[in-house]
Amino acid sequence: MRTVTYFFIFLNLSLAVFEEPAVYPLPFLVTSLVEVLCLLVFFGRLTHFAKVTHRNVFWKDTKNICIMVAILLSLTDLAIYGILRIYDVSSIRWSRIVRPIFLINFAESRQIRRAFRSIRNTLPEITYVFLLFMFSLLMFSLMALKLFGERNLKTAEGLPYFKNYLEIVFDLYVLVTTANSPDIMMPAFDFSSWYALFFIAFVIVNTYIFMSLFLAVVYNNYKKHLKVMFGGVNCD
């Protein structure tokens, strides 16, 4: 039963690759039939679990309620999407976001729930580091707007360089990953090589300091919650 459940969970999650917009599109009838089959298997597994569990225990278990709600939402969305498709009305499959619920809430997914619970408990404790990082990103973006926005610089494509504050925030956010380095700094560097100091300072503060700090906080808090969950067992 565990193998069958995992297989159909994987199949249900994989439908996103074949549903519009898709990497490898398949006809709607094919994907809808596969999804209905998966939902029937999930309902059958839930019914089987209800047969071997006391009624009060079954209905008090939040996991079972989540699975039933996810099945109903998926079927409702599938029916609405199919009807709208018949009348050539554009729509989206909003129920895709509930599919991971099946992965987390089935009884076979105990280890996944433990990991998910540890991640959930870790999130509030990394909020302060994330807010500091965002404050630094916003301040550097404001400095970039003041430094480069009034100099009428152009990118290699001939577009205005660092004129819009929100676009600057996004470009510098990408620079944290160094994915757009050194292209993002070249218009300023061509104007004056001293402007390279701004980008060097940004990378040192945000990429090397804040990202390392962020990773350390996430790791230490996740490990702490994992130890508590397993009763103080060494998780190193």
Automatic annotation (TrEMBL):
Coiled coil: none annotated. One of its GO terms (molecular function) is monoatomic ion channel activity. Residues 5-224 form the Ion transport domain. The chain crosses the membrane at residues 26-44, 65-84, 126-145, 165-182, 194-219. Its main location: membrane. Residues 1-16 form the signal peptide. Gene3D superfamilies: 1.10.287.70. PANTHER family: TWO PORE CHANNEL 3, TWO-PORE CALCIUM CHANNEL 3. This is TPC2 protein.
